[in-house]
Amino acid sequence: MRALCLLALLCACKEDASVGPDFGGRCTSREDCTFRCLASPATPGGLCTRNCTRDADCALGAACLAMDDGPACVYICFDDKDCTFLDSEVGTGWGCRTRDRGDAGVGLFCLGP
């Protein structure tokens, strides 16, 4: 958990986080992304990401989270403001949500409702 908090701190300091087809870009299908597209409603508007087995598989500012269709890298956060860069349209539903990570404890992630 300490490592996740430290990672979140580092992410919060980096304001120019680039988003795109490798990670963080919007998508409607796998073809929109380099690796994988997480579909709505978990990720409003879709999220380009990659599969993972551990946090080290993910980019700075992200961690590995179990999703319905397998683990994926997802942005970590402290509060809803940390997720606003994912909202290209106001009110699309992105927010900082608490999720159980099993043995890794509880974490905060940018996800949909």
Protein described:
This protein is α+β, with helices and mostly antiparallel strands and 113 residues long. It has one domain (2-111). The protein has one helix at residues 2-13, and strands spanning 36-38, 47-49, 62-65, 72-75, 95-100, 106-111. It has a two-stranded antiparallel sheet with strand order 1-2. A two-stranded antiparallel sheet has the order 3-4. Strands 5-6 form a two-stranded antiparallel sheet. Residues 1-16 have low confidence and may be disordered.
Secondary-structure blueprint:
Elements: H1 2-13, E1 36-38, E2 47-49, E3 62-65, E4 72-75, E5 95-100, E6 106-111
Antiparallel strand pairs: 1-2, 3-4, 5-6
